Amino acid sequence: MRWWDIPAVLELERALFPHDAWSKGLFWSELAHARGAGATRRYVVAEAAGRVVGYAGLAAVDGTGDVQTIAVAFDQWSTGLGSRLLGELLAAATDFECREVLLEVRVDNTRAQRLYERFGFEPVGIRRGYYQPGNVDALVMRLTDPVTAVQGMTHGSQG
């Protein structure tokens, strides 16, 4: 993801997350940490027919990766795009030498939870009222070996 992708990403963000969409400033801030020798972020976009249809981002600090966001346009659901985006983030986590990867997912988003479980993420806790303004709880999930997950993807064991 580059700065010129932000308008299209924001459009998709607002469509997918109308109540708790990220701001333009937040995306700019994240991208500011995605370049150069001291980069701690990796953000990617997926395009189809000239439009952004998905995006994802990872932060890495002290050996721990944190999936910041992952989103797929409604018309791209069930195409494998979410798996490909998550795979890109896990590859980035190995590049950043992360020993584990964490994420938060809405407790009512079972579709995303199943995706994460396929990659080896396991539930480790609940963050009460994490998603605002709806006061929805977040399920915290952890992947303890991103290197093995990435190797499994490259050998066809992930879908």
List its traits:
159 residues, 5 helices, 6 strands, 33% helix, globular
- Report the portion of residues in β strands: 25-35%
Main structural class: alpha+beta
Mean pLDDT across all residues, rounded? Answer: 92
Shape designation: globular
Total count of strands: 6
- Cα end-to-end separation: 24 Å
Which range best describes the helical content: under 10%, 10-25%, 25-40%, 40-55%, 55-70% or over 70%?
Answer: 25-40%
Largest sheet: 6 strands, mixed
Radius of gyration: 15 Å
Provide the succession of SSEs: HHEEEHEHEEH
| Uncertain stretches | none
What topology emerges from the helices and strands here?
Blueprint: H1 6-16, H2 24-32, E1 41-48, E2 51-61, E3 64-72, H3 81-95, E4 100-106, H4 110-118, E5 122-131, E6 136-143, H5 146-154
Parallel strand pairs: 3-4
Antiparallel strand pairs: 1-2, 2-3, 4-6, 5-6
Helix pairs in contact: 3-5
